[in-house]
């Protein structure tokens, strides 16, 4: 979604900046025999992501068909907000513990991130 932000006001001059929200689409390739571990990992993010500044749309697990692909969607006001979020994650104890959990159990085989913008009128 596009938005306008007032970034400066001087006498009769108003400067506006166009802001575009972004959504990060994360595609996970999982070890299909460790899906319950990934589900636990995803549940932990439900509290961590909002605390660190992301708007978690959700995590999706395989149900029918392909058994080793999961997805997550996280939205941000703009790319700068995403960068700030990533910095906060690196200093958050719960986030670092969850990253460690994933590394220890190796249930994520690959992770791809795509940055999306909404199609508007």
Unreliable parts: none
Give the rounded overall mean pLDDT.
Answer: 91
- Main sheet: strands, sense, barrel: 4 strands, antiparallel
Task: Give the assembly state of these chains.
Answer: single chain
Order of strands in the sheet with the most strands? 4-5-3-6
CATH fold topology: Alpha-Beta Plaits
CATH architecture type: 2-Layer Sandwich
Number of helices: 3
Description:
The protein is built from three helices and six strands. The chain has a single domain (22-116), classed as Alpha-Beta Plaits, CATH 3.30.70. It starts with a strand and ends in a 5-residue tail after the last strand. α1 runs antiparallel to α3 (93-105). β1 (2-10) and β2 (13-20) form a beta hairpin. Helices cover 36% and strands 40% of the residues. The strands form two sheets. A four-stranded antiparallel β-sheet has the order 4-5-3-6. It has a two-stranded antiparallel ribbon with strand order 1-2. With 121 residues, it is of the alpha+beta class.
Walk me through the topology.
Layout: E1 2-10, E2 13-20, E3 22-30, H1 35-51, E4 55-60, E5 69-76, H2 79-91, H3 93-105, E6 108-116
Antiparallel strand pairs: 1-2, 3-5, 3-6, 4-5
Helix pairs in contact: 1-3
